[in-house]
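ok trying this again, last paste got cut off
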Amino acid sequence: MWSDVQQRQTQAEVPAMDSSNPVAAPSHKDPAMRDFLKIEQLSKAYQKDKPVFADVSFGLDKGEFVCIIGHSGCGKTTILNVLAGLDTATSGYVYMDGREVSGPSLERGVVFQSHALMPWLSVRKNIAFAVESRWPDWSPAEVQEQVEKYVSMVGLSHAIDKKPSQLSGGMKQRVGIARAFAIQPKMLLLDEPFGALDALTRGTIQDELMTIVRQTQQTVFMITHDVDEAILLADRILLMSNGAEGADGYKPGGIAEVVTNTLPRERTRAGLHHLDGYYDLRNHIVDFLVSRAVAH
């Protein structure tokens, strides 16, 4: 069972999947009842009577990897920015580890679509700047040990003293990932960090990310448009609908469905399509994006 259907008061009920299908039968575990991160009744409106999304509630367990998928304009990045403390919701609340999120914090590491490195600093100094901000009382030796550990994790020890202009796009994104992990945040937020990379580089960094997440037991919330990437990386996948005008007026977007990934957690990119249940899971998500991603 891998589909949790999210009910929202402002939208019509989303049809549950056929319970006679053991793969598609809906789970009755409330996806909002998670301990580590709680999002409650979140909404965002730039135009008062037409919120982009409304009544968004979900949660993450500690150590869980969750991806969110939806078409452009549904509000995915806005939700991530609210979780990061870089934006504010029109209404609703976000709690992490028992405290309300009310602004940016080094407890939440963010990796954006662009690497956002300081071009005048080397790889070593870019990451050291973050580590020193996180632990200002650390000695230079402690800072360098932390930097070198995470540069090694992303396979860039040979380039540690190079500047961003000397690195490929994939290498720059690895530095961004290493910097985020080096501050040991309670939660990692990824905004399509591999979207601009070629397929081969993307696959290599996906594998590295999976390895680091398993080693560190990091909690991750990630935006992606890539269905296979979500299936490879995520424990759960949130399917988000777009707001739309209907016969009964405007309906805001929101979390339409929560899909639990029941494939083996030690899955690999190369072996993903050989796993039982992969095509059922993939087809369900693609069907949502093609035919059900507009609020009804």
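PB: full thing came through this time. Residues 67 and 222 are 5 Å apart (CA to CA).
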